[in-house]
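SEQUENCE AND FOLD
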Amino acid sequence: MSTSHGSPVDPEARTETMRAVGNDTPAASPRPARRKPVEQEPVEEPAKRNGMGTPALVLGLLAAATCWTGWAGVVLGLPAVVAGYLGARRAFHNLATDGASSLGGLVTGAIGLVAGAIIVWPTLFGSGGFGDGLTLDQCMEQSSTAREMHMCKSQHLTEFNERYPNAAE
């Protein structure tokens, strides 16, 4: 065996040279090299920030208690759900200790939000207007303005046209 510049290579000489220089591999060394322990600075734990659980629980309980009014359940339930979610997430990641009240606020806020939204839904999307579920006569008795009379007529158009065939539109 020879090197690129023509001199013969003795594997034993090379090993001895590497041991003398100190460039040996750990497997060739009779004892493993010890590493100096690296001194690590203590890692500071993030401060536990409580503060979402109590507001979430209070808002959630108020939302659930007043959801029968409709808007109160929606208005109080939405921030209860948000605060409860954020607090429960912090507690899950060990950044807070008020996870139970956060989760309670999340659940009760969701109940108030959903119940309030179900009650408010007809008002928002037009069902449940004046005269719904009434006959033409009952609707006309309750109407006090021309607009309400027109609503009664449009809801009961077939019956109205049968009764008053010559009525102007």
